[in-house]
Amino acid sequence: MSPKSPQSNYSKKPIKRVRLLKLGPPKSKGLFEEYFYGFLAAIFVALFILLKAGGMDTSTALVVGCGWRTHLVRAAVEEILQ
What we know:
82 residues; 56% helix
């Protein structure tokens, strides 16, 4: 008779837990986030044309257009972030 070898008990071995990577749906950007600089350019050009048509000279229309564009975009971004 052969001596009995101890049987290994698999239920007492530590279990390694495998972490699976959770993939969610990709975050989609909004239209404003996607084309931010395009919106800035369109606002600036529209303001420039309106100010120029209102009788301002070119340099004044450019400066005032930049100021109004900055104000409008800042107000829109603050509204979005709230």
